[in-house]
C-alpha cells in the first residue's frame, strides 16, 4: 500500500501549482462577497430588467467569480524566482487582493445601493421634520426611515463580518 509522500507535494513544478491553488482558495470567500454584492446591486438598481432575475444571471455571476479568481492568481504561476519560496510580494499581493480590493468594491456598491434605496424612499414618501426655531426660518431635516436604517445596519454588519471573518 502506498502512503502520501509530502516531499512529492513540494516538488519544484508542483509547488507553483500549490501556491496558485492556495491563492485561489484565499480569495474565494472575499470574491464571493463581491459577487453577492454585485448580484444584489443589479437586482435592486435594475429591478425592471428581468435578466437580473434569471438563473442565467446567477450562472454568469458565479462563473465570473471563478474566472476572476483564476486570473487574479495568475502571477503565482508566472514568477521567476525560486519555486517553493513564499516571497513577501506574494503575501502583500494576496492580502491586497483578498482584503482591500473586495472591501473597496463592496463599500462602493453598498453606498450606491443605499443611495438608490434612500432616494426611492424619498420619492415614494417624502418625510420631513420641521424644527421650529426662534427666527423666522424653519429648518427641515429628513427622517431616515426604518427600512433605510435596517438596510444600513445590514450593510455594516456584512462589512464587519467580511473584515473580521
H-E order: HHHHEEH
Count, helices:
5
Taking the sheet with the most strands, its summary is: 2 strands, antiparallel
Helix content: 55-70%
Explain what this protein looks like in three dimensions.
This protein is mainly alpha-helical and 165 residues long. The protein has one domain (6-131, 145-164). The protein is 68% helix and 5% strand. The protein has a two-stranded antiparallel sheet with strand order 1-2. The longest helix has 37 residues, at 88-124. The two termini are 40 Å apart.
How is the topology of this model organized?
Blueprint: H1 6-9, H2 12-45, H3 55-72, H4 88-124, E1 128-131, E2 139-142, H5 146-164
Antiparallel strand pairs: 1-2
Give a quick rundown of the structure:
The protein has 165 residues and is mainly alpha-helical. It has helices at 6-9, 12-45, 55-72, 88-124, 146-164; strands spanning 128-131, 139-142.
